[in-house]
Amino acid sequence: MTISIETARKIIAAALAKGRAAGMKPLSVVVVDAGGHTIAFEREDGASPGRYAIAHGKAHGCIMLGLPGSAIQARADSQAYFVQAMNGLFDGDFVPVKGGVLVRDGAGTVIGAVGITGDTSDNDALAASAGIEAAGLVAES
Amino acid sequence: MTISIETARKIIAAALAKGRAAGMKPLSVVVVDAGGHTIAFEREDGASPGRYAIAHGKAHGCIMLGLPGSAIQARADSQAYFVQAMNGLFDGDFVPVKGGVLVRDGAGTVIGAVGITGDTSDNDALAASAGIEAAGLVAES
Amino acid sequence: MTISIETARKIIAAALAKGRAAGMKPLSVVVVDAGGHTIAFEREDGASPGRYAIAHGKAHGCIMLGLPGSAIQARADSQAYFVQAMNGLFDGDFVPVKGGVLVRDGAGTVIGAVGITGDTSDNDALAASAGIEAAGLVAES
Amino acid sequence: MTISIETARKIIAAALAKGRAAGMKPLSVVVVDAGGHTIAFEREDGASPGRYAIAHGKAHGCIMLGLPGSAIQARADSQAYFVQAMNGLFDGDFVPVKGGVLVRDGAGTVIGAVGITGDTSDNDALAASAGIEAAGLVAES
Questions:
Q1: What SUPFAM superfamilies does this protein's entry cite (chains A, B, C, D) (predicted)?
Q2: Are C42 and D5 an interchain contact pair (Cβ–Cβ within 8 Å)?
């Protein structure tokens, strides 16, 4: 199972709707496939120019390690040099905070990830999970 | 004037509609702002994983030089080493073929660019121009 | 459908057997998944140290563009600057000659690629196709 | 003395067998030569896509410094900035935790290294040592 462009659009629309409903700052949302490659991305008006890279770095990090943003952030808190090494290893495309969320199908297989940036990392993750679940998929944040 | 996310969505939807109407291969479309930074991106089902990078490289090259893809491709045909130097200079994010199209407002100011990849470079550029014009903006391909 | 490690081992063993039977020079063989990420690799005794990078660059290029090595090599012959731009875009991990072979499942979906280096590019591709077909998959070289 | 492809296969098979017997998570194993260049690699089903890079970063770091992963990790604990500098120096291909294990011949000469990732760093190192010793070589973890 893979994430189609139609599903990716649903994820982004629902994530942005969650952000608007909760009064979050302008969000940027990326959906990547099981290899970490971008399927779709949107940056809301008012978000700063670097948001694609940050969103992608969150999602890409999740895919590369097979771990959600919360687990990567916890590892960063306990062993900073490991996480910094991952940043170097993946040529910077690795942002070790919440807001990167794994997307699993019903069988539990990782089929992609969502990365969101713009509000607090906790809120970024909430919006990502809302988007994934609205598309009928399982979020691991 | 800047390209809003709503306008970017219109550009992408119209570009993809053009591709479908013309029987093109699966397309990938990026819209970037006047600084070359991504506003929105979509990759159609069946497109290969590297398409974000290629689409962005086309749009980014246009913004960096202030030239449309056709002009950059012409320069590549006449002076390949210059264009190769640009590729190195911009850390690879520079793809010197058609399919990168400048977006101008009514006053002629460059407010962004569109990059499309997936079909022939000529068709990629046609789809990009169709998307830009459907959004009421001026395309320079 | 994905390529399991068991299937990857079969591909490599059969590709190397083809090379030995045909009297080819020492070969290096990589199998990557649909995102271009390495599943398995072997370098035969006597092969030079840079062979992992070359094999991976062939397979990775095929995945990124969704094209077999022969098509990429043809594009390099007709429009060298485009292919050189791809090398920059993918941070060097792009080797535009034969020996990169797409792996498709029965439905025609790209599920990975094989990259081989060591003998002539034509022979590299022959060995890769032999390996893929021995595993019951479809090779596009 | 060098590590032949046949020996590398033995190391990987025995390391993976150790992981299965101990109930470890899916492992990824690389064997590199005395120059840090990959001889063979396998990624077990279920391991995340970034595992080649991590495994290689562990083994490569060991070879570059002539130190086992435990010594590099200890240095990271005591002087994180030095280890971060090594990560930058070697272009990211340097992962400073256990699971990188030097391979020595009977005379004590470093002839390569093994890098494993997937379970805890301690378990990664155990599996690597098991693989090296099963091949009749000396492991320094």
A1: GlcG-like
A2: yes
Per residue in B54-64, pLDDT (tens digit) is 999 999 999 99
The CATH number that applies at residue B86 is 3.30.450.150
DSSP annotation string for C63-119: HHHT--HHHHHHHHHH-HHHHHHHHHHTTT----STTEEEEE-TTS-EEEEEEEESS
CA–chain centroid gap for A57, Å, is 8
Instruction: Count the Cβ atoms, other than its own, within 10 Å of residue A87.
Output: 19
Amino acid at B27: L
| Tokens linked to C94 | 């792009």
Answer whether residue A141 is part of any domain. no
Q: What is the pLDDT of residues A87-114, one digit of tens each?
A: 999 999 999 999 999 999 999 999 999 9
- Would you say the C-alpha torsion B101, B31, B65, B90 has a positive or negative sign? negative
Residue A37 belongs to what domain range?
A: 5-136
- pLDDT single digits (tens) C44-59: 999 999 999 999 999 9
pLDDT 10s digits, D49-105: 999 999 999 999 999 999 999 999 999 999 999 999 999 999 999 999 999 999 999
Predicted local distance difference test score (pLDDT) of residue C50:
97
CA atoms of D133 and D141, how far apart (whole Å): 12
pLDDT band at C119 (very low <50, low <70, confident <90, very high): very high
> Please, which residues bridge with residue D134 across strands?
none
Measured CA to CA, the distance from residue B90 to residue B72 in angstroms comes to 14
Q: Is residue A65 part of a domain?
A: yes
Distance CA C4, CA C8 (A): 6
Q: What is the pLDDT of residue B98?
A: 98
Contacts of B98 in chain C (CB under 8 A): none
Query: What domain count does chain B have?
Result: 1
**Is residue C128 within 8 Å of C141, Cβ to Cβ?**
yes
Smallest CA–CA distance, residue C23 to chain A, in Å, is 36
Q: How far apart are CA B125 and CA B43, in angstroms?
A: 16
Amino acid identity, residue B87? N
- Cα separation of D42 and D31, whole Å? 9
Assigned token pair, B121 = 């470079």
The token duo for C81 is 């600057």
Check if C93 contacts A (Cβ < 8 Å): no
Concatenate the DSSP letters of all residues of chain D into one string: ----HHHHHHHHHHHHHHHHHTTPPP-EEEEEETTS-EEEEEE-TT--TTHHHHHHHHHHHHHHHT--HHHHHHHHHH-HHHHHHHHHHTTT----STTEEEEE-TT--EEEEEEEESS-HHHHHHHHHHHHHHTT-EEE-
Q: What pairs with residue D35 in β-bridges?
A: none
Q: Which amino acid is at A109?
A: T
Q: CA of B85 to nearest chain C CA: how many angstroms apart?
A: 10
Cβ atoms within 10 A of the Cβ of D122, count?
12
Name which of D50, D87, D91 is nearest A85 (Cβ-Cβ). Answer: D87
